Amino acid sequence: MTEKHLSTQFDSELNRVSARVMELGGLVESQIRNAVYALTSFSIDAVDQVVTTEDRVNAMEVEIDQELSSIIARRQPTARDLRLLIAFSKATANLERMGDEACKMARMVKAIIESGAARSLPSGELRVAAEMASELLRKTLDAFARLDTKAAVAILKEDDLIDDEFDGFVRKLITYMMEDPRTISASLDLLFLAKAIERIGDHSKNVAELIIYLVEGKDVRHQTMAAIESAVL
């Protein structure tokens, strides 16, 4: 991921942080996979795996942040090196927040299971969206490792699809609750899960935007897709 410097030690430090960020990404990816499995299979074991991994994710985020602060203080990097370290920091924060969303999903699934309502919920479409979000994170980590801006643009487009799934699901839930008020409580549980899934997609999008910022030196947040594609291509 990094370019060679006159200081071999600096190269080693950058490569170490890069490896740690990817390791963190792998942990969060496992959390989301387990959260999706918990949702699709109503598995308490999968819920417990998500929650157990959360402490490791939080600790690693703190460690990476401390390491980045130390490198910036000692090396006083400029230009692309500084962008790289900033990107590492922001990617780490987004990954930790994805882990938080996975934990929210897991805890809600556990509450649904314990309430005895698990099998009666219309959660099929939600499972599709959850699997889309999990796959999007996998693609995001791969693009970040390779600094692939074209893949980053594709990720931004896929996040739009997850947003569309969320909007459509919310509309169906509203109709569902209006037709049968007895389903309001269960529907609100599903809405909570849907929002967590949508937020995982948003954080993947944030990391994809960081890839473009790092490679092109352009902040593409809040820009249209046409403008982003122009900046990259």
From TrEMBL:
Transmembrane segments: none annotated. SUPFAM superfamilies: PhoU-like (SSF109755). It comes from the Bacteria. Residues 22-108, 129-211 form the PhoU domain. Coiled coil: none annotated. Its main location: cytoplasm. Keywords: Cytoplasm, Phosphate transport, Transport. Pfam families: PhoU. InterPro entries: PhoU, PhoU-like_sf, PhoU_dom. It is found in: Cytoplasm. The keyword ATP-binding does not apply. Gene3D superfamilies: Phosphate transport system protein phou homolog 2, domain 2 (1.20.58.220). Homodimer. Plays a role in the regulation of phosphate uptake. Belongs to the PhoU family. This is Phosphate-specific transport system accessory protein PhoU. It comes from Comamonas guangdongensis. The lineage of its organism: Bacteria, Pseudomonadati, Pseudomonadota, Betaproteobacteria, Burkholderiales.
